[in-house]
Design goal:
Elements: E1 6-8, E2 16-17, E3 24-26, E4 34-38, E5 44-48, E6 57-61, E7 65-66, H1 67-78, E8 84-87, E9 93-105, E10 111-123
Antiparallel strand pairs: 1-2, 1-8, 3-6, 4-5, 6-10, 7-10, 8-9, 9-10
Amino acid sequence: MASSCYLSLPDDSEKTYLDEDPESYDDGPAERRMSSEETIGGGRVWQDFGAADVDRAIRLRTGWMTQATLDLFKAKFALVAQAWKWADHKGRVYLVVFRSMKPERIRGYEAYRVEMNLDVVEVLT
């Protein structure tokens, strides 16, 4: 079953689709930027700067990716300082950069399970 998830250039060209929707997917909210410090006398000062979209990360794991699809994703991963448009199976669209990609071959097949981490630059929709 073909996936609705794809990675492309920001102008929507050079689309590369996953072979199937991810078996695990987390695009949850970013952790809050905050700190706390002790003060003289045993008190505490809290600084809370909220959770910005640029602090978000997308973590996904595929259950099946063909060698051909993996090669296309590897070529995108190899480009330095390139932002990509990521459209997910939930209808959300992000501008992202690759953090990591870890393929694991499925024994007996020309296919892989792949873990990818994408850092969010901007939430587009």
